[in-house]
Amino acid sequence: MKKTIKIDKKRSGLWQDSDVTYAQVPGWLGHATRDLKLTVIRHFEKQEKSMPLLVWFAGGGWMDVDHNVHLPNLVDFARAGFVVASVEYRHSNIANWPAQLEDAKAAIRYLKAHADKYQINKDQVVVMGESAGGHLASMTALTNDMTEYDQGSYLDESSAVSIAIPWYGVVDPLSAKVNSASPDFDFVYRNLLGTEPEEAPQLDAKADPLQYTAQNKVPFLILHGTKDEVVPVADSRKLYEKLNENGHVTDLIELEGAVHMDEAYLQPEIVDLIISFIKENLD
């Protein structure tokens, strides 16, 4: 069979800029320099106007970070009209908290500094992540305009974001350790803080989003499975209540029967729910 067909161009193609260095940080016990990477999914043709930026932080218990692992699933958001950036951050074998928060903010500043290249609207930035990455998304949003966590380059750019969407994100490290259904992952909180959270309450508080809910008003969409055996769903309920008390627009969606890192989070229904929340709350 031979035929000629006419194709209507209903959507743009997508570029992928893989493993772009966004910052350099100390490595190998402080005696070397380490690159931090991010990958951007952006639109092929020049768009009529800049697009919202969705920044993704993968999970891994702050012990192992593969910023490219969810790229196939994040394409859904690029197709919906976002520029998507998936960001590497230092794991806890390299640096303790708050290095991870400093990295997240450095990545956002880098992306804003290159907004023209990636067609980004600098005033419309959403942070989203899973587990340890969900914790990082919460902390990034709730520390908007706290300059102590802005370290490195592009300091003339703001690291402030507009919306946070944590998926089964850790809230208080101590609460997550004590109330988890399994003790198998208790060590990750010690590695993150450099000490047991119960032995350093002030340090634990520095990594607890609950302590920052009065800082600013950022809309939150919290996703958590009712059968999560790693991060207690009760902690997300506590975050939801605290955010509401302090005037944040906040939705908590509990996924019935979902466990930690469940494929339920990758279904079209969840993608549509997230996109709807963003569109309703993005200025």
From TrEMBL:
Residues 45-243 form the BD-FAE-like domain. GO terms for molecular function: hydrolase activity. SUPFAM superfamilies: alpha/beta-Hydrolases (SSF53474). InterPro entries: AB_hydrolase_fold, BD-FAE-like_dom, GDXG_lipolytic_enzyme. The lineage of its organism: Bacteria, Bacillati, Bacillota, Bacilli, Lactobacillales. This is Esterase lipase. Pfam families: BD-FAE. It comes from the Bacteria. It comes from Ligilactobacillus pobuzihii. The keyword NAD does not apply. Keywords: Hydrolase.
